């Protein structure tokens, strides 16, 4: 859907056209404006749809790392929220607003690896129940930008 306008440089600005305030005038005018709706436009089929739960991780389609990383810059235009956990790409676009920890956590890792952060807060059972249906593919070479801090168990000896 959009507006189609035809302009002519022969006429001065019309009453509904903006004239720049810095001293120059616009030489174009709208001769004809028409509302146009594309009745054939449909949302494109996703190139990497969610995969069936029964498909093993090794059989998921491979997504080049550049495509995964580009999701960060394409978030505003495409609206995809892909994250990587253990080289598996998860499309959290539909889940992001339902995430119990809030959408900010997922948004901060779009197009990136968040494996150690994910496993600090989630169990394998949670991944099987909530994550597995969100898988779209596998990748390699996406590195977590944060170094994992050491985990301490038990008492420290001095």
UniProtKB/TrEMBL annotation:
Domain Cytochrome b5 heme-binding, residue spans: 72-140
Domain of life: Eukaryota
Family: Belongs to the cytochrome b5 family.
Keywords: Heme, Iron, Metal-binding
InterPro entries listed in its UniProt record: Cyt_B5-like_heme/steroid-bd, Cyt_B5-like_heme/steroid_sf, Cyt_B5_heme-BS, Cytochrome_b5
Entries under PANTHER family matching the protein: CYTOCHROME B5 (PTHR19359), CYTOCHROME B5 TYPE B (PTHR19359:SF95)
Entry protein name: Cytochrome b5 heme-binding domain-containing protein
A molecular-function term among this protein's GO annotations: heme binding
SUPFAM superfamilies linked to this entry: Cytochrome b5-like heme/steroid binding domain
CC per GO annotation: membrane
Signal peptide stretch: none
């Amino acid at each position: 859907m959009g507006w189609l306008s035809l302009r002519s440089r022969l006429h001065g600005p019309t009453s509904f056209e903006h004239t720049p305030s810095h001293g120059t005038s616009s030489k174009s005018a709208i001769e004809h404006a028409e509302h146009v709706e594309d009745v054939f436009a449909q949302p494109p089929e996703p190139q990497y749809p969610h995969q069936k739960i029964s498909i093993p991780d090794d059989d998921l389609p491979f997504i080049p790392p550049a495509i995964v990383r580009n999701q960060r810059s394409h978030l505003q235009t495409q609206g995809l929220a892909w994250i990587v956990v253990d080289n598996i790409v998860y499309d959290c676009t539909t889940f992001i607003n339902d995430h119990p920890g809030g959408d900010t956590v997922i948004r901060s890792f779009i197009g990136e690896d968040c494996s150690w952060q994910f496993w600090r807060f989630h169990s394998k059972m949670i991944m099987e129940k909530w994550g597995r249906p969100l898988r779209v593919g596998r990748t390699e070479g996406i590195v977590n930008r944060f170094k994992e801090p050491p985990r301490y168990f038990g008492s420290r000896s001095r």
